[in-house]
Known about the structure:
Blueprint: E1 2-5, H1 10-15, E2 21-30, H2 33-41, H3 48-51, E3 55-57, E4 62-65, E5 71-75, H4 85-95, E6 99-102, H5 108-117, E7 120-123, H6 129-133, E8 136-143, H7 145-148, E9 154-168, H8 175-190
Parallel strand pairs: 1-2, 2-3, 3-6, 6-7
Antiparallel strand pairs: 2-9, 4-5, 7-9, 8-9
Helix pairs in contact: 2-4, 4-5
Amino acid sequence: MIKLKIPISDEEIRKLKVGDAVLLSGVIATGRDEAHKLMIEEKPDFIRDVLKESVIYHCGPVVKQDKNGVWSFVSAGPTTSMREEPYQADVVCEYNIRGVIGKGGMGAQTAAGLKKCGAVYFHAVGGAGTLIADAVKKVITVHKLEEFGTPEAFWVIEVEDFPLVVTMDSHGGSLHKEILEKSQKIAEGLM
């Protein structure tokens, strides 16, 4: 198990290969459809410093707020990443992001961006939202909550030992692509 702390250098991220198990610690941000669109169309400064040499998590969390106004995550499961394919490579490069967390993998455009700008795709286990929420130690702040709503807002969080697997690396390796190609060959043989 590789322990990885944010900020993550280009050298550290390029050492990772498909199949590496990682425990991630540090400050990351969630971001889904509305967030990615905003980051490309408006390039907001409020998230730039958070994401620099950090990670964006495709997650629509379930949250609660206590009587003192402090937020916490109840569930933090990954959402399907492919919806972000039109934006992800540009977001990675524009914001100097070192990793993307989600489920299901991403396509060729993102793979090229990961290689070019030095980042990886981390797979988080779907269906384990409450377990993953245990890795969220603190909600630092939230941006665009009123405008985007809870699932689409930018949640800036501190994580500790967030369990992940590298499924797309900065060298062009993609477990998702390999599985798709193998599955297609098997399907062709069956037909």
